[in-house]
Design a protein that fits this description.
5-stranded antiparallel beta sheet; globular
Length: about 500
């Protein structure tokens, strides 16, 4: 075989045994990796090689850990201690399996290998005049297989749906061989089918516990005729929540993406902007003063909804009209497309900002949840209070930076992201302390009506909370799946995600 596709190098093993949590980044940056790494990394090139690898794993009692983009934020690629699982751990990097095998333009479906990154897939489809509709904030690196394994969500969910709405079929190599649909005709998909439990349902959110995802059939759409952005400033977070709740009820008029930045995150975004021109400065000054006068706006309370439109010219025109009318009803003022696009792009920059801030002894992390509309204000306020109180209780230096953002909108609730940063100058074992505060915040979310995760998945990071969200029997089956049988995957969970999610 090709020995260049097998590695025992420490650097490769370290990269494949970590993800993108703050603990992972801190350990990699300090060189103090405190957990077990995979024993080897393998890069298969096709489905047959994956089957051969799984067969070898069954014969030799190895454990295989699928790996895609390495963007998981759940410790899913961490290997268990040898006392827990003494088997050899093999990381299976899927990135060489990135072919678009076929595209059926008439049916609007494509057959794609699971190792392709979001960026590669988006560019390939755009050349053909199509979009995949899925755009998590990790799309540069995260892969199709990881999106499926974590049940990922993208920023344009309002228009195209989540990954479960986009994927049509999933092909998986398990301990007994390939599991897939059989087709009498080529280049077709089964579509909706009532024929027992299907592979797609089993694999969505499976986090690698049932096998290695090797390919999938996905839905594709023609590129939108019109794309644009808008932003709306609202007096306070309460007004902002009422506004986006109104947008969530617009059905077909709901824009492709709606995101509500709280005051702290909006001011962070403004602070990161390049210096405006003289004309922009004048316009901003006039707009701000008018806003303060007619809308009771304050720099310490104003929030911003950033909006992305995609569709036909007529659809976008109707959506923009509805957005304007609803903004007026809730005391909002339009802030323009430049702010709207900047707010959308800020999502992609946040992960890089976090790693950059570590150079200056600032440790940060984001975490997400689904919250029903009826519990939304309660969850956000309680979680922020908890972070501040835990920081204060430990007498940590300075004040923490805490903010939140509403992302995906649903009829019954929303996805909420929390962001937490703290100064670690002079703090002993800062990563562990940060993790303790984050766990306290996660518990507060659960206690007040939020979910364990909207799209990042469980992994090992959140496995301790499983018994709080499932009945005892369900929790037992879920925990059993975390340690896979010989020859099968331990975990394929990856982030981003809004995303970020993804392997």
């Amino acid at each position: 075989g090709d020995e260049s596709r097998i590695s025992l190098r420490q650097a490769d093993r370290a990269r494949h045994g970590t993800g993108h949590t703050q603990e992972d980044m801190y350990d990699l940056r300090t060189g103090l990796i405190r957990f077990r790494l995979p024993d080897a990394v393998v890069w298969p090139e096709n489905e047959g090689e994956v089957q051969a690898l799984v067969s070898l794993a069954s014969q030799n009692d190895w454990c295989l850990i699928p790996f895609g983009g390495g963007t998981n934020v759940t410790h899913s690629t961490h290997c268990p201690h040898k006392e827990i699982d003494p088997r050899q751990m093999i990381s299976v990097d899927m990135k060489l399996m990135r072919r678009v095998i076929w595209v059926n333009e008439e049916d609007g479906v494509a057959y794609v290998e699971a190792g392709i990154t979001g960026l590669e897939l988006i560019r390939h489809m755009e050349k053909l005049g199509f979009t995949i509709g899925h755009e998590p904030d990790s799309y540069e690196f995260s892969t199709l297989g990881g999106w499926i394994a974590t049940k990922a969500s993208g920023m344009k969910q309002n228009k195209y749906g989540n990954i479960e709405d986009i994927v049509r079929e999933v092909n998986v190599v398990g301990a007994k061989g390939l599991m897939s649909h059989k087709h009498k005709m080529e280049m077709t998909s089964v579509g909706r089918s009532s024929a027992g439990v299907d592979m797609k349902s089993l694999m969505l959110g499976s986090e690698g516990c049932f096998g290695i995802i090797v390919s999938a059939v996905i839905k594709i759409w023609p590129l939108a005729e019109s794309r644009s952005h808008e932003s709306v400033l609202l007096p306070n977070f309460g007004a902002g929540l009422r506004y986006v709740k109104g947008l969530s009820k617009m059905r077909s008029l709901k824009p492709a993406s709606v995101r509500l930045l709280d005051n702290e995150q909006f001011r962070l975004g403004q602070a990161l902007r390049a210096s405006p021109s003289r004309f922009q400065s004048f316009r901003n000054l006039v707009s701000k003063n008018i806003g303060y006068y007619i809308g009771n706006f304050s720099e310490r309370s104003v929030v911003c909804a950033t909006i992305t439109f995609e569709g036909t010219s007529e659809e976008v025109k109707m959506q923009k009209r509805s957005v304007r009318e609803l903004a007026s009803m809730h005391g909002g003022i339009l802030a323009g497309s430049t702010v709207g696009k900047a707010g959308y792009d800020l999502t992609f920059a946040i992960a890089y900002l976090r790693d950059f801030a570590l150079n200056y002894n600032i440790l940060g992390e984001s975490f997400e949840t689904f919250v029903p509309w009826s519990k939304l204000t309660r969850v956000i306020e309680a979680t922020k209070r908890k972070i501040y109180s835990e920081h204060k209780r430990r007498a940590l230096p300075g004040a923490p930076f805490v903010c939140s953002r509403v992302t995906q909108l649903y009829d019954d609730g929303v996805c909420v992201y929390f962001y937490f940063c703290m100064n670690i100058c002079g703090v002993g074992e800062p990563s562990d302390i940060f993790a303790e505060i984050e766990r306290s915040a996660r518990q507060e979310i659960l206690d007040n009506g939020g979910s364990l995760s909207h799209h990042h998945g469980l992994g090992k990071l959140r496995s301790a909370f499983v018994r709080q969200i499932y009945s005892q029997d369900k929790a037992h089956h879920q925990s059993c799946a975390v340690v896979a049988p010989p020859g099968m995957a331990l975990d394929e969970s990856d982030e981003e995600s809004e995303s970020d999610s993804s392997t």
